[in-house]
C-alpha cells in the first residue's frame, strides 16, 4: 500500500513540475511491472529470469511542440533533471483533442491469481508433449507471466489506475523426415488469470500443430506453376484472416501512417486524407478493432492518454469507415479520440496502435464454403508473410493448405502462396463462417521499435479472385 | 542511500552463496528527434539506470535486474533469486563463465567524448541540417537517435571494467515525385552524422532514372546498396551462433564446407573500433575478437561464449551473451571489387537495384528460405544501364515487388561488390550494425503485384 502511495506521489510531483513548465498540456504515466520468464531449448532450461521495473513517462506540449521524457528513476531530482532538458524548436504544431475527464481504478478479470501460475511447469509439460512426436526435430519454447500496474494523471484532471495481469508463450517447432523440413511458429497470450491461461490448452495444441505440419511433408503434393496460377478460389482460415486484417487493414488505418508521422519508420498507407471512405472490400467485409474483449491479448480499458478504448468499425460493408486515432490525430480530424494510444513500456512514447482486430463472422458453416469451391485451396496456416510500405501488396506463404476440387477437400499442398493486392484480396471475400477465432501476436511499430500485445482473427472466409 | 557498483553486486552475490555472478551496471541517456512532413515532429528523451545480474548455483542459471543501485534493492533481488533458483532445473550443458584476468585491446572502447552530457541543442542542429537539404516539393521524414552510456562490468571470474560508449544514427526518407528513398548514417561520433551527405546520396539515387515502368515475374540479378545488403546478410552471423546451430540453422553441420562464393569473407567483429557497439570485452569479460564465420566461401567458425566453447572443446570467440552467444557487428569483404556502384550496375544485363528492404521473413529458418520486400526506390537495369524506377501500381510510393531467396543460394550467387563499404543499419534490423559494400547477387526470384 505504501509503495502504491509512493508511486502516485511521484506521478503527482512530476505533473506539478511539468504543468509549471507547460501550462498548455502535461501528463504523467507511471508503470510498475514484473514478469517471470523461462526459455526451453530442446527440452533444456536455457534461461530463467525475474525482472521488475518501475518508471515514469512525462509528456508535455509546450508552445505547441510535443516532448516526451522517461526515466526509471522516480526521485524528485531525476524528474527535475529530465524536465530541465527541453529546448524550443521550429516544427509540427501538436494539439490534443478535447476529451472528458476520466477517473477510476480498473482491474481486468483475473480468475486465479497469475502469481500462483507455475509457468515453468506449464512450459515443461508443453515441451514433454512435443518431445513425444518423433518427427519434431527442433523445439524452442519461451514463456512468461507477470503483472503491470499503471497510473495516469494529466493537467485536465484525469486520474486512472489500471492493473493488467497476463501471460505469453512463443513456440518454434521444426518437423522433418530427413529429406524435408517445415517450420511452425506459434504465439499465445492472455490478459487475465490462471483460468484464462488454461483455456488456451497449449500443451494439447502444440503436438497437433506439429502433426499437421508433418502431414504436409508426408502427404503433400507440390502443384505445377500453371496449376497454381489457375487457382481463383481460396478459403482462408481465422489465422490467415487475422494476419491479413491486421497487416492490410489495421495498419493502413492508423492515423499516424495516413498523415505521414510514421513515414520513416513503420511506413505509410494506401489511404490518404483524400481517400478516406473509399471501398476497400466487398460488402461481406466489416472489420473492427475492439479493445475490451476479456482475456484477449490486446485487452485494454483506457488508453495511455486517459481515453476509454472504443470499438472502431474500421471497414463497414466494404467501405473504409474509421481510422484509429489518438488525441493528436483526433484534433487533426476534428473529432474525439477512439482511445488508440499505446506504448510497450513507460520508456517509450504512446503511439496509435491496434488492440484486437478481426473480420466480423458471417452465417455459414465451413461445409457451406467448401461446397462453393470448384477448384481452390483451403489455407489453414502460414509460415511467412510480408507486405509493402503502403500496405498494398501482401504475401502469405501456406504452412498447412489443402486442395479443394468440386467441394471436396483433398491432399495437402506444399507450395501454395497467397500473394495479392490488398484491394483485390478484400474485394474477393464472398462468404464467411459463424466460426470465429482470435490469435495472439506482438505488433511492432515506431522507433525505437515497440512491440505491443494484440490479437487478430476472424472467421473462415471464401475469397473468389475470379470476379464472379 | 549509497550507490553500489557492479563489483559490489558480484561480491554480495558470492557472499550470499551463489557459485558465480556477473553484473553490468549502467547509466544511459537516449534521445530521438523525429522528423515528419518536412518538419521536426517531436522529441523523446530517456534516462535509464540499473544493473543486470546473472547468477548460477550448481549449474542452475538465473537472470535478474535491479534499477535502484543500492544495497536494499540488491538484498531483495538476491533473496528472490535464491528462492527462484532452487525451483529450476540444472542446465546440464552449462560450463561456467570465463575466468580472468584478461588483457584487452582498448582501441575497441573508443567513443565520442563530446557526447558526454550532450543536450537537445546539438541534436537540433543536425535535424535542421537534414531539413536544410530539402529542395522544392520534396518531403522528408526521419529520425535522429543519440545515445551515451556509462557501464561497469564485474564478474566472479576476476573482471571489473568500466566503459563509456556513444552512438549516433540518422535515418532519412525522402519523398520526391511519388517515389521514396531511405538511407541511414550511423557512427560512434555525432560529428560522423552528416545530414547533407546522406540527403545528397539519396538525391543521386533518385536521379538514376526519372522514368517509371513495370517488370514481370522472373529471375533478375539484384544489386543491394549497403543498408539492405547488411540487413539481409547480418542474418548469417546470427545463424553462426552456436545456439542457432543447435536449434536449427542452415549452417548446422556445414563447418569446413563451401557455403558461398569463393571470393566472399564475412566476419563477426566485437572489437573493430569503427563499429557501433565495439567493446574490448563481451558480456562475461572475455576479450572480443574479429572472427571469420565464412572465409573465402568456406564456413569457418561458429560463435561461442565460454560455456559453449567448453562444451564443444573449442575457444570462446568473445561472443557472450551469458545465456547464449550473440553476434556483434558484421563486416563483409569480397575479392571481386567492381569499382563504384555504377561499375556494379554495368555488370548487370537484366536486374534491379534495391535501396532498402523490410519485412524479411524466413519461411524455413533451417533451410534458409526467406522473402523480403523492397521498400523504396528500386530501379530496373538492362544491359548495364538504369532504365526506370519500378512502380507496379499508382498508389503513393508503392514499389510492388518481392524477392524470394535462400540464404545459402544468395551467398553462392554473391558475385561482386562495389567499393562503397560503410557502416549502416536499417529500420528493419534496429540495433544491428554492419560494415558492408553494395553487393551483386545473380538470378534471384522476383514476383510482382
Question: pLDDT under 50 segments of chain B (min length 5)?
Answer: none
User: Using only CA atoms, what is the Rg of chain A?
Assistant: 24 Å
What spatial form of chain A do the alpha-carbon principal axes imply? globular
Into which percentage range does the β-strand content of chain B fall? 35-45%
Terminal Cα span of chain A: 64 Å
Q: Count every beta strand of chain A, where a strand is a DSSP E run of 2 or more residues.
A: 20
Tell how many strands the DSSP assignment of chain B holds. Answer: 22
Number of helices of chain B: 9
Strand pairing plus helix content of chain A: what structural class? alpha+beta
Rg value of chain B:
24 Å
Oligomer: heterodimer
User: What are the low-pLDDT stretches of chain A, counting only 5+ consecutive residues below 50?
Assistant: none
Largest sheet of chain A: 11 strands, mixed
Number of domains of chain A: 2
Biggest pleated sheet of chain B: 10 strands, mixed
Number of domains of chain B: 2
**Biggest interface between chains:** A-B, 80 and 85 residues
Mean pLDDT of chain A: 96
